[in-house]
Amino acid sequence: MNLDKLKFNSDGLIPVIAQDHKDGTVLMLAYMNKESLQKTLEMKEMVYWSRSRKVLWHKGDTSGHIQKVKELYYDCDADAILAKIEQVGDCACHTGNRSCFFNKLG
């Protein structure tokens, strides 16, 4: 993958949607910078950029709930990434839920 094709925002970040590769469940939305994307490609596990802590965040370092990369795609505008992953452990969300998207509007 040529990372120069991707359009990172003014903060050097790109949004990433993590999706279960088997059933299509959207598990979470996070952000990457070029360094975290390069580490993800090298490790074959998801590494994000923590906007609150301003550090690289290897998903599962503390919880053990890692995300193994199956496939990575970028969208038609090259400004977002879809990561099809294998979620190791029961949850992707820090709340203990499988998905971060469990709050229904309306």
Descriptive overview:
The protein is mainly beta. The chain has a single domain, classed as Roll (Ubiquitin-like (UB roll)), CATH 3.10.20.810. Helix content is 9%, strand content 35%. The chain is built from 1 helix and 6 strands, in the order ββαββββ. It has one helix at 34-43, and strands at 14-20, 26-32, 47-50, 55-58, 67-74, 81-87. The strands form 2 sheets. It has a 4-stranded mixed β-sheet, covered by helices on one side. A two-stranded antiparallel ribbon has the order 3-4. The radius of gyration is 13 Å and the shape is globular. 21% of the residues are buried. The model has no long low-confidence stretch (mean pLDDT 96).
Produce a short descriptive summary:
The chain has 106 residues and is mainly β. The protein has one helix and six strands.
